[in-house]
Amino acid sequence: MSNVTEFILLGLTQDPDLQKLLFIVCSIIYLLTLAGNMIISVTIFISPALATPMYFFLSYLSIIDGFYSSSIAPKMIYNMISEKSSISFNGCMIQLFAEHFFAGAEIILLVSMAYDRYIAICKPLHYMTIMRRSMCVSLVVAAGIVGFVHGMIQTTFIAQLPFCGPNTINHFICDLIPLLELVCTDTHTLGPLIAMNSGSLCLLSFCMLIASYVVILHSLRKHSSEGRRKALSTCASHVSVVVLFFVPCSYLYVRPMTSFPIDKIVSVFYTLVTPLLNPLIYTFRNEEVKKVLKKLLGQVRSNKD
User: What pLDDT does residue 195 have?
Assistant: First the structure.
């Protein structure tokens, strides 16, 4: 039975001056994240030139990044200027579910994007047959289902554990490790089982992605120099996003369930910085997206004139 009805989040720092500075910085990053991901998703949805499976997945990646950041950033930013940085027990469980729901969905979506590049490069003659619209929709739906199941497993396990006090979380979010440290029961067996759900999903997916790109690189030897350049440019964007997402994920969940001081910095990176960098990476490294954005910007300016 849990006696705790709310948790106190200590946040990133207890220094009032530093909190004000972080409030401004994190607010700017969050607003840029929302704007960047919205621009990418809307551009892809309204542009016929980007009506391909790769950009179809990219549009949903931008949507997921926006929701993922929104499940954490607003509460974190508000607590920086609030006198009492608290969150209800139910609110904490909702945040935990949302975090792992969107993270799980993003993992499967990144795997789907790698599969799309594999088919495009290694089986180009069958690309349109395999990556038809129904297949792309099915992969996006599968990402949502896996994310939902993953989030429910994590939340269900944690919600059933007894919290008797204290209720102070040395973090700015409700996550597995900080919550497990507050449970008033032995978690030496249960802790690794709960972490395994996140760690195994993260590690297995990362290994699949690495294996797929090894095959892709091997296949590129048969392509022309121009074909290799274009394929490598596209794959480089995806690999950059994969590294930005999976390195922090692996650090946090593929290890013993113990908190370290650097955990907060890593969490800030994958909850705020990574969702901001994803649209920038795909925009600046992708000529087609840049051309469409310039064209749309030109149309907006001409309409104003």
Answer: 65
